[in-house]
Amino acid sequence: MAPSRTSTVKSKHATNKSGIRNSKTSTKPQSDGVSKSKKPKSKGAPPKPQKGASSLAALKKKRRIYTEKELGIPALNMITPVGVEKPKGKKKGKVFVDDRESMMTILAMVNADKEGQIESKMMKARQMEEIREARKAEAEKRQEMRKSKLDETKEGIRKKRKRHSSSGDEDKENTKQEAAAGTKPLKPKKKSVSFA
Amino acid sequence: MRPLTETETQTLFAKLANYTGNSLKNLIAPLDNSPNADRYVFRLHQSRCYYVRLSLANLATSISRDKLLSLGTCLGKFTKTGKFRLHITALPILAEHARYKVWVKANGEMPFLYGGHIVKAHVGRWSEDCPEHQGVVVYSMNDTPLGFGVTARSTQEARRLDPTGITCFRQADCGEYLRDEDSLFATS
Polar residues composition bias: which ranges (chain A) (predicted)? Predict the structure, then answer.
């Protein structure tokens, strides 16, 4: 760092000493990065005539000059998130609903919404009710079938018994067997073991 | 005291529409046909919503906010999450426009007014075709509004219910005027 600085200073002095004022070399050091106390003087001066000139030009051409605020240029050159930036020209704070028309529209909307909800609820309830009814009917039917089957078998047994009783022999044994078998009297009991 | 915003109005109407039918629009209808007729408006004051005549609301602006305790009819309260909770003080308005109703027998009035739910044995009459979880207004047998609640079962299902089964969940009852005397109108 140090040597380079000295070198620049050196060169600057050199140019100053050279005496050539309008030469390129004499003006160059002002444009490079090193800041000097003398600089503002030279920098401050140019805008004045420029501004005056531009205003004159604007007056002549009748062109409007926009200020930075009007253009809406962000202060920092960076991306601002969508939510952060406040919308311009919009009312600050809450927006109240106090007129009858807007209230009516909101009410109509809400009412329609509720109506739909109730309707769907009713439909659902009705469907469920139908399903329940169908299931109940089916269960009843099944019960009926089972009962009729039972009756049929009962009747069958009763008839069988009557026939047996009419034949006369081995009636006592049969009745005993049936009583022991209970609800399954149709299965003929096989005698498995016989001692001859 | 301020008017409601759009979302607040929507929330409030959605809540009221749970209990009332289409006649709710009469709530904000002008009182007569003259061009500058007085009408009822909703005003929010310290998170409570009031149903109040516009002329009265305008008069109330002359009272400082912290000194103003109440005006008109208090409908309920906006919670901090933005939901709306109806108070028992809204009962006269709900009863006027009620869609579904439940009438309780004389023996069921006291249990309800003490904060109990309505069991089937206490129901004298109910609106037909009422779905499940629907807001209902509870009346005594001589048509005095006692409170409001939400149905536990639809009307058809409730028929099959045993006598001790709950048919309507209580949400607010007139007994609150005594039980919640301290907090019902308190401003804090």
Answer: 16-34
Q: Is residue A73, in this structure, part of any structural domain at all?
A: no
Domain end point (choices B37, B64, B93): B93
Identify the domain boundary among B34, B58, B93: B93
Q: Which of A8-12, A50-54, A158-162 has the lowest mean pLDDT?
A: A8-12
By C-alpha distance, the chain A residue nearest B2 is: A96
**Nearest by CB to B132, which of A110, A113, A125?**
A125
Q: Which pLDDT tens digit goes with each residue over B54-86?
A: 899 999 999 998 889 899 999 999 999 999 999
**Which residue of A lies nearest to B160 if distances are taken between CA atoms?**
A129
Mutation choice for A interface testing from B1, B2, B6 by most A CBs within 10 A: B6
> What's the pLDDT tens digit per position in A63-75?
888 887 777 776 7
**Residue B163 belongs to domain with CATH number:** 2.30.130.10
| B21 and B86 fall within a common domain | yes
- DSSP state string for B85-98: EE-GGGHHHHHHTB
User: CATH number of the domain that B77 lies in?
Assistant: 3.10.450.220
Q: How many helices (H) and strands (E) does chain B have?
A: 7, 11
Residue B123 belongs to domain spanning: 100-178
Half-sphere exposure (Cβ direction) of B172: Cα atoms closer than 13 Å: 23
pLDDT at A15: 45
- Contacts with B22 from chain A: Cβ below 8 Å: 111
Q: B136 vs A98, B18, B66, B73, B94, CA distance in Å?
A: 29, 8, 36, 20, 9
Domain total in chain A: 1
Mean pLDDT of A36-62: 54
pTM for the whole thing?
Answer: 0.64
